Input
Amino acid sequence: MQKVLFLFGELNDDDIDWLITTGQIAKIPPETILIHENQPLENLYILLDGSVTVAIESMGMDKDIAVLKSGEIFGELSFIDRQLPSASVKTREECLLLVIAQEMISQRLSQDIGFSARFNRAIATFLANRLRNTVQHLGKDKDFVFNQSIAHEAIPESVREDFHVATYSLRLAVASGTIPNGGGESRIVFTQF
Output
C-alpha cells in the first residue's frame, strides 16, 4: 500500500484524475503473468485489489522474491531506466489493476513539467524507500556483500562521453577559479570509468 501512497501523496487531484481516466481498470484472473522477465514492458501497474508474486529465474527455475499486495505499483523500474524487466510478475489470485500505458505517461511527462516533477519525485521516493528496506534486510545477513558497482561495459557509451565532458568542464572551472575548490581542498571527487 505504501507505494501508491507515495505516488498519490505527491500528485495533485488533476494528476490523479488523469491517471484514472487514462488508465484502464482490469480484472485479471489468478496465475496470469503480467510482466515477463527480460521481455519488453508497455505498462505501469497499480494493484487496486489482490496480490501478485515477483519472481526471478535462477538456475532454470523461478524463484519468488516478493509478494505485492493492494496499493503497490510495479513496472516502474523499466519505465524509469528503459531496461527490460529484471523479474516476472504473476497474479496469485484474481486482481483488480489500474493499467497505464507507459507511452501515455511519457507523453504527459514531456507536456506537463509540474506533473513530471511530482511524478518523478514520487517514483524516486518509493525507490529510495525500497532500497533502504533492501539494504536493511540484507544487513541482517552478515556474510552478504552488496556490490553496487557497474561494469564499465554496462554503461552506455553516450553516458560515459557525457560524464567525461562534464568532469572535464568541472576541472576547467575549478582550475580557472570559476568554482572555488574550498581553499585548497577539492570538494569535487573525480572518478574515472
